[in-house]
Amino acid sequence: MTLERKTRLIGLYLFLGFIACIFVLPILFMVMSSFKPDLQLLSDSSSLRAFLPVGDLGVDNYRDAFSRAPVGLFIFNSVFITATTLVLSLFLASIAAFSFVFIEWRGKTVVLAIIIATYILPFETVAVPLLLLVNNLPWLTAEGVTWGWLNSYQVQIVPWIIRALEIFLFVQYFRDLPRDLVESARVEGASWFQVYRRVVMPLSGPVIATVAILKFLEMYNNQFIWPIMVVQEEGLRPIMVGLLYFFQLNTAWGEIMAYLTIITVPVLAFYLVLQRAFIASIASTGVKG
Amino acid sequence: MQNRAGWLMAGPAFLLIAAFLIIPFFMAIGFSFTNQRLVSPNPTEWVGTANYERLFGIAVLTLEAERDEDGTVRTKDGEPVFPSLRSYTRNKDDHPEYYRKREWFSFGRGEDRRTFVLATDVVFLKAVRNTLFFVAVVAPLQATAALGLAMLINRKVRGINIFRTVYFMPVVISMVVVSMLWRFIYDGQNGLLNTVLDLLTFGWFEPVDWLGRTSTALPSIMAMSIWQGVGFHMIIWLSGLQTIPASLYEAARIEGASRWQTFRYVTWPGLRNTAILVMIIITMQAFTLYPQIAVMTGGGPLDSTQSIVFQMVERGYGKQDISGGSTISVFLFLFVLSISLLQRWLTREK
After folding, report:
1. What is the CATH number of the domain that holds B167?
2. To probe the interface with A, which of B166, B196, B228, B296 has the most A CB atoms within 10 Å?
3. ipTM of this predicted complex?
4. SS3 letters across chain A
5. Domain span at residue A14?
6. Are A250 and A126 part of one and the same domain?
7. Domain boundary residue, one of A41, A58, A75
8. Between the CA of residue B97 and those of A265, B54, B102, B120, what are the distances in Å?
9. Which class for B99: exposed (0-12), middle (13-18), buried (19 or more C-beta within 10 A)?
10. Which of A73, A96, B149, B177 is least surrounded by Cβ atoms within 10 Å, i.e. has the fewest?
11. Both A218 and A165 in a single domain?
12. Same domain, A269 and A133
């Protein structure tokens, strides 16, 4: 390696590292601060100590955060809502896409076109009328039919199950599968559902991962505006809304940082382990036609 | 048989989309012409375009400065004095077109005249202006920064994947979390940003309360939004870059093309469709600006960070004014639709 090439390479790494700092330092600061008492947190923030694990470290902030708000419950709610939506979404989106790609039925081109068209409807544009709609929907409980979905789990799950993008990603993937597989299974007498379950789904690992990751990020990270509108009961709220507990008169930054760390670290860990799949799923949103 | 199986399998997904996206969308259009509220003892009434008129009611009023008896312009603190706007906006009989409007902004025309732009719903118009400003700044800046990063990491040197992983990291963090974290970073007293700028300039930098001033609040939110989202679009650019055949770069090198020429004649033409896609995605995301505002500023200071979606929630949920919120939804949808149509037009087959 020539000297010139070497210096240029070092320059490149320095530049890459500088940019990396811009992305890492705020996150590092969040994690470090969550272990510091408030007073030290504030004084450290006037120097580079803000990013270092120095001084009087401890888990007091975590303890205080748990005692200020029902953090465990918020985490449970988010995990429950995310997991339920995820499973239902994967099932209903893939089986619908299967029907669109492999089965001939009257009206399917129109139905698929309508579904794809809803891609340009951001949730925000329907949130307000949906609030009125869910307030007047029935739900079956053990005691019979109740009216109004406000303050419930289903109001946070059912409207979110399906989005056009998920069906579209499955449709795109299924179109590239060899049709002979499906046809020969049909000739052998398999029902459509058996073909879906035994032939097509076992081949769909990559697209399942893609949709699962996108749905996970949407449900775990971005559930904020809607639960604020439809859930006032604290025991049913998800983690992002739980953050509102920490907007008090005297903001306790240590506790806030602890709370932010609790809800962020699992996602970051997921991402670091599965980063190829995460990045592939984001890239696949870009191949939209 | 085929028909039944097909409908059975596609039916549930279609029903959900119809019930929770398509029907509410048409409800929004319907409600925008009524006075629907979430709960109300009175029956809902058809009000025609009144909701739209209230949102967009604008009137322009040019006033002459007050003069003393000798004809000189009366001034106060060096500024000419104008007749009170209230005499116009509170006088239904003489000036119905100004009735109940408020000043949005005004500009002077010469020594003794001033034009006032009055609006029925000043806050909403500010929200529209802020949102457009946000989109107009964030979309091109974020797209350019993302392209820069994509080109930076689209090379074969050891360890480059680590940098890709790091640049993408904020994308998997919730915007709600990011907004809360950056509230501390932007803080005027203990904020990290002030600390870092102070260190970089060796103490020359005067601390700024970034979110507390009308001039810096929205730009601060823009910078943070770009920080969070740039990795997302970097990945989309990167997959576009990787579709460009290496042989083209090889040819450019043999021809002795400069770096800029290589970018201009090889890279950029190969990215045309990616470019349009990136712009569309960023624009649509930027139009629905909400969590940053809700967590960081609540629309303030002095409405300088109001956004369309924030106003929509304030009315539809906060005031339980379903019709007012729906009207804003319809307006937002028309915005997003025009962007998608623009995309169609730009990517049309030539």
Report:
1. 1.10.3720.10
2. B166
3. 0.91
4. CCHHHHHHHHHHHHHHHHHHHHHHHHHHHHHHHCCCCHHHHHHHCCCHHHHCCCCCCCCHHHHHHHHHCCHHHHHHHHHHHHHHHHHHHHHHHHHHHHHHHHCCCCCHHHHHHHHHHHHHCCHHHCHHHHHHHHCCCEEEECCEEEECCCCCCHHHHHHHCCCHHHHHHHHHHHHCCCHHHHHHHHHCCCCHHHHHHHHHHHHCHHHHHHHHHHHHHHHHHCCCHHHHHHCCCHHHCCHHHHHHHHCCCCCCHHHHHHHHHHHHHHHHHHHHHCHHHHHHHHHHHCCCC
5. 1-58
6. yes
7. A58
8. 57, 12, 12, 10
9. middle
10. A73
11. yes
12. yes
- Boundaries of domain holding B96: 58-119
Q: Which of B103, B119, B135 is the last residue of a domain?
A: B119
One domain, residues B107 and B69: yes
Q: Do B253 and B112 fall within a single domain?
A: no
**Domain annotation covers residue B37:** no
- Asked whether residue A54 falls in the same domain as residue A69, the answer is no
A279/B288 touch (CB, cutoff 8 Å), yes or no: no
SS3 of residue B35 by DSSP: coil
List the pLDDT tens digit at each of the 289 positions of chain A. Answer: 688 888 988 999 999 999 999 999 999 999 999 999 988 888 888 888 888 888 888 888 999 888 888 999 999 999 999 999 999 999 999 999 999 999 999 889 999 999 998 988 888 889 999 999 999 888 888 888 888 898 999 999 999 999 999 999 999 999 999 999 889 998 998 899 999 999 999 999 999 999 999 999 999 998 998 999 999 888 999 999 988 888 765 678 899 999 999 999 999 999 999 988 888 888 887 654 3
Task: Find chain A residues with C-beta within 8 A of B294's C-beta.
Answer: 224-225, 228
- Partner residue opposite B27 with nearest CB, options A133, A267, A270: A133
Partner-chain residue, chosen from B7, B176, B312, that has the shortest CB–CB distance to A243 = B176
Structural domain ending residue among the three candidates B119, B138, B166: B119
pLDDT tens per residue, range B93-120: 777 778 888 888 888 877 778 888 888 8
Rounded to the nearest 10 degrees, what angle do helices B175-185 and B217-241 cross at?
130
**Domain finish residue from A58, A75, A105:** A58
Same domain (yes/no): B70, B156 = no
Do both B199 and B103 map to the same domain?
Answer: no
Specify the number of domains making up chain A.
2
User: Residue B114: beta bridge partners?
Assistant: B63, B108
Q: Which residues of A touch B153 (CB under 8 A)?
A: 16
Cβ pair A64, A255 in contact under 8 A: yes
- My answer on whether A54 and A71 are in the same domain is no
Q: In this structure, are residues B134 and B310 in contact, taking their beta carbons and an 8 Å threshold?
A: no
CA angle B305–A30–B303, rounded 5-degree value: 10
Q: Specify the 3-state DSSP secondary structure of B75.
A: strand
Q: What is the dihedral of CA A32, A34, A40, A45, to 10 degrees?
A: 60
B123-132: pLDDT as tens digits: 999 999 999 9
Which of B160, B192, B288 has the CB atom closest to A122's CB atom?
B288
Tell me the whole-structure pTM to 2 decimals: 0.90
Residues of A in contact with B175 (CB under 8 A): 221-222, 224
- Chain B positions touching A22 (Cβ under 8 A) are 227
The phi and psi torsions of A57 (rounded to 5 degrees) equal -95, 145
- B133 with B165, same domain: the answer is yes
Q: How many CB atoms lie within 10 A of CB A114?
A: 14
- Shortest alpha-carbon distance between residue B16 and chain A (Å): 7
